[in-house]
Design brief:
Blueprint: H1 7-19, H2 22-29, H3 33-47, E1 52-55, E2 58-61, H4 63-89, E3 96-100, H5 109-119, E4 122-126, H6 128-137, E5 142-147, E6 155-163, E7 165-170, E8 190-192, H7 199-211, E9 218-220, H8 225-233, E10 239-242, E11 253-257, E12 264-270, H9 273-289
């Protein structure tokens, strides 16, 4: 069958076979779709067989691809088992708690102080999807995330906290004091984050937009918050963010309540018993603080 496949290539084939969708597989592998497609093509060329049939509905595993999957699957299971056993031997130097960047970081102050008094954790700030991957791998014991977030390799615990979503609108547009609904701004360009940042929330918000009859021209939202605010203030487009981000003052921007936007909910995610215990402790402290 030609040259060997390394473990990363085996994992790529297995995930593509599981998803039968190159975009979703690429998101799980934390790479973009074109490099993954090239990798699969290169593996097929090296082995001299076709692993997948491409058609308009997605991908289909070929009989030969099924054979390859049967050969590599036990090796991947053995690798995961070995990693799990090695991880169980290692004594973590410190508890790691994830904090999503979906909310403005200033809201975590009292919570971080009390958690530091209890267990002196390391706090990791990242997007909800990055934290979810860390929890699933066991690198993070528990994490605060934005919901909805589909549970893949972890459990979700809802918290009694949610923030209203506000429209951040350029002052040069002469906005009203209250934006009654999203439909009022259908003729305006809108900054919108890419789906990879949180596919589940992204899909859920698409449903919200559909219900609100909101279908503007969408521009990709810059990841750096300062850049986003600068571009809003310049009148390039408006954006929707949780209320806590209004604490970051920026000249040239008005923050308007929107009547047909649901609040952004918060949750804790964890993977095992120790993570669940920490998540419950975090949730209790958060309720007490708020």
């Amino acid at each position: 069958m030609g040259d060997y496949m390394d473990l990363r290539e085996m994992q790529a084939v297995a995930i593509v076979a599981e998803e039968l969708n190159m975009r979703r597989a690429a998101e799980r592998l934390h790479i973009s779709q074109p490099p993954l497609s090239r990798k699969i093509n290169a593996i097929e060329e090296r082995l001299g067989i076709r692993l997948f049939i491409r058609h308009s509905r997605g991908l289909e595993l070929t009989p030969a691809g099924g054979e390859v999957l049967g050969i590599i699957s036990p090796l991947l299971v053995m690798q995961e088992d070995a990693q799990r056993k090695l991880k169980s031997l290692a004594k973590p130097a410190c508890t790691v708690i994830g904090l999503t960047t979906a909310f403005e970081q200033g809201i975590y102050g009292p919570f971080m102080q009390k958690m530091t008094e209890l267990c002196r954790p390391i706090f990791k700030r990242a997007s909800s999807i990055q934290l979810a991957n860390g929890v699933a791998k066991g690198d993070i014991l528990a994490a605060v995330v934005a919901l909805p977030l589909a549970a893949k390799g972890f459990s979700v615990m809802a918290m009694q906290y949610a923030e209203p979503m506000l429209a951040f609108v350029p002052d040069c547009w002469s906005p009203p004091s209250v934006l009654a609904n999203l439909h009022d701004y259908n003729d305006r360009p809108f900054f919108w984050p890419c789906a990879a940042r949180n596919p589940d929330w992204h899909q859920w918000m698409r449903g919200v937009f559909k219900m609100a009859a909101f279908s503007p021209t969408m521009l990709e939202e810059p990841e750096e918050h300062d850049v986003l605010l600068a571009r809003i203030a310049a009148g390039e487009a408006f954006a929707i963010m949780p209320k806590s981000f209004a604490a970051i003052r920026r000249a040239g921007i008005s923050c308007l309540p929107v009547g047909d936007l649901p609040p952004l909910a918060m949750g804790m995610i964890y993977r095992d018993v120790a993570g669940e215990e920490l998540a419950r402790r975090c949730s209790h402290i958060w309720r007490r603080d708020w």
